């Protein structure tokens, strides 16, 4: 069973991901900000990270940098609302594997997850 770390400061978003991905058989670990994400990654070593960009304490870009420093092979998919193309490009430059636009369609999330876990 693949383990996915879901990182978002909005609890309802984590719940949406958890319901969708758990129903598909994935094990879910959650974090509410970038700092929690780095600690969870270090402890859990998930197979994939789904991470929001805009969060308090530590944003997703900084967390991405720290996670990639811990594990250069980390598979991280960033997510954010429409209209943040510059931030998306920064995330890709820092090693993000893909990007999901919120609000997301369940089939897009599942397709993206399956693609990066294949």
Protein described:
It contains five helices and five strands. With 118 residues, it is of the alpha/beta class. It has one domain: Response regulator (Rossmann fold, 3-Layer(aba) Sandwich), CATH 3.40.50.2300. Strands 2-1-3-4-5 form a five-stranded parallel sheet, with helices on both faces. Helix 3 links the parallel strand 3 (48-52) and strand 4. It is globular, with a radius of gyration of 13 Å. The mean pLDDT is 92.
Strand fraction band? 15-25%
Structural class: alpha/beta
Q: How large is the radius of gyration?
A: 13 Å
Q: Helix count, per DSSP?
A: 5
**Proper CATH architecture:** 3-Layer(aba) Sandwich
pLDDT below 50 for ≥5 consecutive residues: which ranges?
Answer: none
Topology at a glance:
Blueprint: E1 3-7, H1 11-23, E2 27-31, H2 34-44, E3 48-52, H3 60-70, E4 76-81, H4 85-93, E5 98-102, H5 106-117
Parallel strand pairs: 1-2, 1-3, 3-4, 4-5
Helix pairs in contact: 2-3
